[in-house]
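RECORD TYPE: protein structure
NAME: asparagine synthase (glutamine-hydrolyzing)
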Amino acid sequence: MCGIAGILQLNNTTEVNQSVLKQMNTSQSHRGPDDDGYHFEAGIGLAHRRLSIIDIAGSHQPLFNETGDVAVVFNGEIYNFAELTTELKARGHVFSTHGDTETIVHAWEEWGVDCVQHFRGMFAFAIWDRNKQQLFMARDRMGIKPLFYSLLPDGQLLFGSELKVLTTHPQFNKELYYQGIEDYFTFGYIPEPHTIYANAFKMNPGHYLLIDKTLLADKSSPTALKQTQYWDIDFSQAVLTEQEVKSELLDRLKEAVDIRLIAEVPLGAFLSGGVDSSAIVALMAQLQQDKAVNTCSIGFDDQQFDESDYATQVARQYQTNHRSGMVDRDDFSLIDKLAALYDEPYADSSAMPTYRVCQLARKHVTVALSGDGGDELFGGYRRYRYQLHEEKMRGIMPQAIRQPLFGTLGNLYPKLDWAPRFLRAKTTFQSLAMNAVSGYCNTMSIMRSDARAALFSPKLKQKLGGYQSVEVFKRHAANANTDDPLKLVQYLDMKTYLVGDILTKVDRASMAHSLEVRVPLLDHKYVEWATRLPSAMNIRGNEGKAAFKQALEPHLPHDILYRKKMGFAVPLAGWFRGPLKQTLQQALQSEALADSGLFNQHYIQQLYQQHVSGKRDHSSALWTLLMFSQFYRQQLGQ
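PREDICTED:
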């Protein structure tokens, strides 16, 4: 696991500023503490930070082909590199290392842009081909590894593994991307391909960027760079039979786990006590019968949020080398660090315990397997069941009746945060007035459209020009290629929440501690197979992940599989009424937030007063505001 960076002169062959590129690369030194490397030639500079996992003695980057005219900088793992190496050697390619990085160079020589079709793994890389004068950048299919880029006005293309790599460049313009602010207060993150900055972008999962300098020689700098999609999640394939699901579900997952056990450094797994991480540990234990699996978990001293007893239960069953830590209910010391870690506004508060479990794991292992992706893949979120119920209602009642009826109820019904869940119907009424895509966006929103309208200042609303975040969901829904209501929202989550929230959280938290995290459930071959499960096998009645849990019954205790899902949450509501009350108030009343001119300060104080008084629970909105304030102060110097 590593960090990559680079500068390409699009319009000329001027020397790249070496000291600037070195500063850019140093900003991500946490991603690769074992080694760094640089290559400079006319018009381009490549940089790399290395965390050594495979071929520790070799595979220094930038890595070249045998003639020295193709170079690569690479972040990730290619799990099928041994087979690719054999195939490429048979085609006449000469290898000088024993790692996975060199397969990328020779695959580019052999297949060009189609090389990405041959890779099985998680990756973000950049290839420079001197003879062709081409720069090729690609990101893995599911978006496990990040890749950012920016085009400066003078024609310099910057790229890197984290946004801070770009912002370190002295010519980078930190002009805000205002639609990103709308997206942030909707989702809690800024979805691909955008960032909080107008001039910086994320590579979309399953996309690449090919820049051919020979085609730019007589042209001015392009104002945009076009990403090309090479893979997508496809829910339109023929569904599997029940017998196929029963016989293949775990065998295929075990194979995805097995290929992720290759490492020349200590390896282990996260074990939360939930279904997905427990499944990964169970399969690892079966594959590593000659040695105990290293596992780690984080518990909470608040029983409402603690799953550590369940993690211990699985650890005992499989006799793992288990280490556990405890997060104090007042452990909010990471607030300042998170803003620096994520480089842009990011509002998932579970980033704090994720940071702590990565910190614990790194004391014992360099590689950890994770259970991320199971809920999206097998229909595990409770909101999926709510969405199906809402879809039944939409099917019964015509839009002409449903929209005014439930729209009115949604406006009139109070927001009963304190009430039992079945009485908290405001969001449901709002969603039922909408179509499936808009309704699901409403369900997923941290702040609903009416709350955002109250929060945003006239200045910000003018900048938005009527833009609303539901456009993100509409754009993806147009490509979903399915009429199945469950598969539609699974697709939406895999394109937005999974990559923008979950995988972003894990990448930054793990790499902050130079820890590599591998995700077997998101192996693209496994995803291609699992998307063919009939929706009725994923959700049966009120049980999500039904087929997955049934397959695991011989391997895990009943209460691990069928207890109520807890999640990896922190007690924000109590924090904001107790130990974080003053910190929150200072942030919300800060000059930075006021001087930005982006928000209605009166509405912010209304949210704060209603929350601290116990009248309402605005903890999610307040945390989102707090993290934006921290970002604005740290990153924009306000």
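COMMENT: The longest strand covers residues 70-78.
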